[in-house]
Design goal:
mainly beta; four-stranded antiparallel β-sheet; 4 helices; globular
Length: 423
Amino acid sequence: MFTLPRLSTLTLVLASITLTACSGEAGSAWQGSVHDSSGIKIVNNLGPPLWTETDRWTFSEVLKIGVVEGAPEYMFGQVKGIGVLSDGRIVVNDGMAQHLRFFYPDGKFEKTVGGPGSGPGEFGPGGLNILVGPGDTLLVVDQANQRANRIAPDGKWLDSWRLTPQDGWLVYGWDDAPTGRLVTHMTRVPGMQRSEADTFDLIVVRHLDGTTGDTLTSVPGSRVRQYSGGRMAFYLYAGEPAVSLCPDNSLLAGRGDRYEIRRYDSVGELEQVIRLDPQSPPITESDQTFLRQRFKEIYLEGGFTSEQIQDLLSAMHFTETYPAFVTLRCGPRGSIWVQPVKPVSLLSAEEKAEFWVGPDAEAAAHFDVFDHDGKYLGVVKQPPGFWLGEFHGDYAYGRWADSLDVEHLMVLELDGLPALDRQ
């Protein structure tokens, strides 16, 4: 049974020692403060970013896998999951074809593993989480079939285990580290009413055989589902938890309702709190009207009755502003990547037509980047049509769609890193 760790370290009394940098223009000197409380660094970013136009990091393309027409092994329907093995081979899930494809580091096709179905060696429709465990053994999470599958580095199917709630908890998300560590983000089973004091999720070490290890820490849970008068209400954009496991087995965690990122060490002790105070855009009446109409369309497509739709829409509420961020990433050299939200007013007509609340739809096409010490460096833009899946070393692996919406796997190198003191 999972238990919540003590949270006393999250209620910090700031120490009297305060280090404040001098003022200056962007790129000249960091403006902010660092407070120390019982060994926990509290970093407040107060001024402009440190980067100038000449030393900011940028992406450059080094590999693209995919064709519009040609050999079928290079044609993708939907790039829905990516894993990178220690020898540089890339494993890609095609959610439409319902299989895995292995590619060599240079992009040459190696093999296809699995196919559609629910039996051994088969995968259900939709995306698969591809995690790389100890010894490059893959753990492929198949939500459609409600199971996790172990696959050897050579593509051989080993076994699988069921995804079932445990003591009222279920898996909210997964992450891995190059060390082979796997963790699961556990949340309460939907429909269970939670008190205000019981709104925390758990980060738990997970083994390849499905057994759980230590509970590393607790993190703030979702604010989207809230209870009032015994009824559940949904607050769109209220703040979802974001978690990322770093290469050194430390952990980043935060929730979008405030711009605060917490770093925990490898055993789950809080060691750093990073803050930025941006201006979150308001959720306008026009945005709310669009969202209500879009959800009504989605519910109609799902076969809901008019009465059910009315109940669902009446339970939908909005906060005054959009969340501060959508996702977190551990980046190269100990950097921290925070992806802001993209307001509805900035969505294209095509994006609005396919809109569904989730990281793909909500996320902006750029990241706020902080160094290992938590100092705000500046913004890195993604190439048009690119969606970041994961970092591996100094490279970013992700999905890229061309002007015809044909999907590819793309690998980008992060340029400008040598200018930063390597962590």
